[in-house]
Design a protein that fits this description.
Length: 257
């Protein structure tokens, strides 16, 4: 659920299974949920397609699978590249002549599993964090004063002098993992909630309350990625998205005091 990049590997894919890798690349690029990378060491997950069941030895074996192979379907195993652990797996034994539709069906099932587990927030969830007393107590204090509030779980962020982590069980669910933002005058000027692929806020929900927001967008000249932002008219809340194709990815929400 946290992964943002993936590497596709077709393990011992001769004859009919040779269609798997092309089909998988097309389907995952169309889904646009994962950034597909070629270097497996840089992937958050490995998407292993095979004809034989996975033995848990992705990190330890020397070379491809050497077991005898009878092609009667395809198996998709999602693997943690750091541990070799299976995160998700299923198969389709539809015969060697139906490898392509079997591959597509496996990916559709995996996609469904992912999308049903995404935490879906509302605009009201986001707004509710703005006046959380536990975070308002940090307004315009110094980092040293904030660190003294040990009951609120404040700590420094390594190598990031203008951020402090904060975690309080008394704030709304959406903003329980946040970072305090230190301004140029060494005073805390707000806080940010960092999100993941495991949670989202539908852009449509924001647009339904368009009278409360001002909207901007820009394109990064280097990465060519499009970014979209909605800021409340009082400048207190900034909601930011990364656009991947037609898909909007909630990237962060910032609050100003």
């Amino acid at each position: 659920m946290e992964a943002s990049s993936a590497a596709i590997d077709c393990d011992l894919c001769p004859r009919a299974l040779a269609q798997v890798e092309t089909t998988a690349n097309e389907e995952f690029l169309s889904w646009n949920r994962f950034r597909i990378v070629q270097d497996r060491k840089k992937a958050d997950v490995i998407l292993l397609f095979s004809g034989n069941p996975y033995l848990g030895d992705y990190l330890t074996r020397d070379g491809p699978d050497t077991r005898p192979l009878y092609i009667d379907g395809v198996i998709l195993t999602v693997i943690d590249p750091h541990t070799g652990k299976v995160l998700w797996a299923d198969s389709r034994r539809w015969g060697s002549w139906r490898i392509v539709p079997a591959t597509k069906d496996l990916i559709d099932e995996f996609r469904g599993e992912i999308e049903t587990q995404v935490r879906r927030w509302t605009v009201d969830d986001i707004v509710r964090c703005k006046d959380a007393p536990a975070y308002q107590t940090f307004a315009f204090t110094t980092p040293e004063e904030a660190l003294a509030k040990v009951e609120l779980g404040v700590d420094r962020v390594a190598n990031v002098p203008d951020r402090l982590t904060v975690s309080s069980p008394s704030v709304p669910d959406f903003c329980r993992r946040a970072q305090l933002v230190v301004g140029l005058d060494n005073k805390i000027v707000g806080f940010e909630v960092l999100t993941s692929h495991a949670e989202t806020l539908d852009v449509g929900d924001v647009l339904e309350q368009a009278d409360q927001f001002e909207f901007t967008s820009h394109k990064d000249t280097q990465s060519q990625r499009v970014h979209f932002a909605a800021q409340t008219k009082d400048k207190k809340i900034l909601i930011e998205y990364d656009m991947q194709g037609r898909q909007s990815i909630l990237s962060r929400v910032s609050y100003s005091y």
